[in-house]
Amino acid sequence: MLNPLSTFLGELHDPDGADRVLEEFRGILEDSTIGKIGHNIKFDYSVLLWHGLRVQGKLFDTMLAAWLAVPDLRRSMDYLSEALLAYTPIKITSLIGEKGEQQKSLREVDVEKVAEYAAEDADITLQLSDVLRPKIEEMGQAEVFETVECPLVPVLAHMEYEGVRMDVDVIKGLSEDLKSEISSARNEIFELAGTEFNLNSPKQLGEMLFDTLKLDPDARRTAKSGQYQTSERVLQRLAHKHAIVQKIMDYRVCAKLKSTYVDSLPGSVFEGTGRVHTHYEQAVTATGRMQSHGPNLQNIPIRTEKGREIRKAFVPRNSDFVLMSADYSQIELRVAAEISGDVGMGQIFSEGGDIHTATAVKIYGVDNEEMRRRAKTVNFGIIYGISPFGLAERLDIPRTQAAELIDQYFEQFPGVKKYTEDTISFAKEHGYVETIMGRRRYLRDINSRNTTTRKGAERNAINSRIQGTAADMIKIAMSLIQDEMSRRRLNSRMLMQVHDELVFDMHRDEADELMPIVERLMATAIPMSVPIVVEMGVGEHWLEAH
DNA sequence: GTATTCTGG
DNA sequence: TTCTACCAGAATACG
């Protein structure tokens, strides 16, 4: 993946020449009355931002447009050109060669050739926009495109540009701790097993547990390769049979944290800034959610004691700042209540009660820790398009009992039942479902004769409207917040988005001004009759702020 | 390149 | 009869 940082800052061999070119275009690029069209325009915006130029004016991204207007097509410009314009563009490889050792840089190529390539690139983008613009209208995606996606492009570019500061010393300390824990766990496991093997190989581990130690004669095997399953769930059920099992779980926790986070995050720190500049992908998921990579900041541990320590390494830019986190409380259940119009569920939220406790009271008639835990599982099941099989698996109860539980739930929340039925029948009739903002997800398999396939599509339909609406909501909030922050010329910066959470580098003096703004704009981004609650926190690192 | 596992929402 | 809970990224093993 190309990176504006390395591609355009580090390797530029003629910065003066580049600056002169930049100055030629500065007037147009910074003119807010002139719209800009680009394919993956966040990339171009970012490059210019790193060169101190802030692009103004309305942005039209043909890649985003294609995502919404022709969702089945691949999103590379070359492919779209062939599919929509019946024209095969000059291949970049015809200028710089195939990917590999001797691939050239564009600046080593004859300028005439580069000019032809670049001009064609611009021309195709313009032509694609002419084709895609009416298609967005036809597909009913104009509102999502105009009010959700396009305004978000510069917001994401700025978040990537800002990055987040990492305290590498925190990471180094964790690395040492984990190293010794892993080493002693390994020794104990091999001692108990009587032999050494590769602990990271599920295959070898499965053979040790089930062939050598014979811990479970009815051990489950994986569907694809027929290996023994050694997942957390499986180990959990085996834990009482042999001391080695707990040790393996301990080892796995530490090995995962070390390899995926502790050892890899320092490598993502960009030397030029000392910060981690993640990339956000706006147009990839089926539901409308974003993805983060390089590194992925959306799966930093929080659920376990050990794992959450990693969040202490995410720190404010300097001592004048703190990290501020704002996250939606139970957003998907609130959205479910809103879309379904279920009166009882809406009432629970209006009264400000605990949704899982209230659900436990409704379906079990009692309120204790265990029933609340089960009700919570049921509530998640609702969002995902519940099935007796799936619920039984997660609650570890018989399928028949799970089915009764679902009946019980739907009796108490008839609006939710109607939502699932209406959503499925709409999907069967139209072949797609929509979020509140009109974002569509097409479901090819919704009328499949294969029951498993069809049921899967039905769950996608139920889940997509909910997850997609929540995604729309936070995307809108981000644009509104960024606008308000720059209008007020705040020094605080939006840094991260984690699906239902926004994290800010907040100047200490701006707390009283910024926090009410963030809270209000997040809560009202999409007007709803169910109250939307935003929980906020401040701290010297991400863990403290959350 | 595919499969498995684990991290998050 | 089916062996599925939804949406993702990344590390590792293994053919």
Helix content: 55-70%
Low-confidence parts lasting 5 or more residues at pLDDT below 50? 1-13
For the largest beta-sheet, the strand count, sense and barrel status come to: 4 strands, antiparallel
Gyration radius, in Å: 26 Å
Count up the helices. Answer: 24
Strand order of the largest sheet: 4-5-3-8
User: What proportion of the residues form beta strands (DSSP E)?
Assistant: 5-15%
Query: Count the strands?
Result: 14
Question: What structural category do the secondary elements indicate?
Answer: alpha+beta
Mean pLDDT: 92
Shape: globular
> Termini, distance in Å?
31 Å
Tell me about this structure.
- The two termini are 31 Å apart.
- The radius of gyration is 26 Å and the shape is globular.
- Mean pLDDT is 92; it is low at 1-13.
- The chain has helices spanning 4-10, 15-29, 41-50, 62-69, 77-85, 93-96, 111-138, 142-149, 152-162, 168-193, 202-212, 232-238, 243-262, 305-308, 331-340, 343-350, 355-364, 369-384, 388-395, 399-412, 414-430, 451-487, 511-524, 542-545; strands at residues 36-38, 59-61, 164-166, 269-270, 275-276, 279-281, 291-293, 314-315, 321-328, 432-434, 440-442, 493-497, 501-507, 534-539.
- Strand 12 (493-497) and strand 13 (501-507) form a beta hairpin.
- It has 24 helices and 14 strands.
- The protein has 546 residues and is α+β, with helices and mostly antiparallel strands.
- The structure holds a DNA duplex (9 and 15 nucleotides).
